[in-house]
Specification:
The structure is a single chain. The protein is an alpha/beta fold. The protein has 10 helices and 12 strands. The two termini are 23 Å apart.
Amino acid sequence: MNPRLDGTLDQAWRLLNGTPASAGEAVSGHSNGRVVHVGVDLGTAYTVLMVLDQDYRPLAGRYQFAQIVRDGLVVDFMGAVRLVSRMKTEVEAELGFPLTHAATSYPPGVAPAEVRATQNVLIAAGLECSNFVDEPTAANALLQVDNGAVVDVGGGTTGVAIVKDGRVVYTADEPTGGTHFSLVIAGALRVSFEAAEEIKKDPSQTHTVYPLVRPVMQKVGTIVARHIQPFRVETLYLVGGTCMMPGMGEVVTEVTGLPTVVPQHALLVTPIGIAMQDR
């Protein structure tokens, strides 16, 4: 595991939520050379633009809930372009210099045509697409797991990557993610999808939400168990915003029988890892 993981995630979380801490020093220390690494994560639930400095430390970024992608497929191309363009403009104003390139990612198993659609979103937003990488591989760029399974529970799908000697040797992706959790909550409580999203994220609602979504958590665990079965996996590493739900790690452990690590601010692991792939 990366010894800088918790510090990197905490700094990124504070930057994205308006409490930058040491961000001012980072900008003044690195903007002259303009050596930055940029990542754009077009997620089913959240789109994240993350900028790292030359030493791969969080420098600036934006994130927003937006339903522009479904199961890895761009379903609102112009909406995606407008969102990424706005994020880019805001971050450029904050940093004081233009962003010209970025890496992006895709769920394992997405068709090449859909990968090109993601690339075209970046190009239309004024960014050269410097690199593509599948989401679990991107996550492991930050995690630095030598052996184990990286599980990226996104808005629409659960991606599994088997890592052996620091190299991803197998990837898979299946439907079931944060959107499914929200749909269950919406149906059970008879509220809109948007209201269910807010209830899902509200810590004070955990006692209401957990019994409703526990079966979906178990399904995620079943997906993971099926894909890791042919391999000797000793530890699971969960990332993605859905993994921040209380009880997620414990339920996956119950189903798989394996210890499960859930980093703090798990939503940001993959976006930061994407930015680390920007060459």
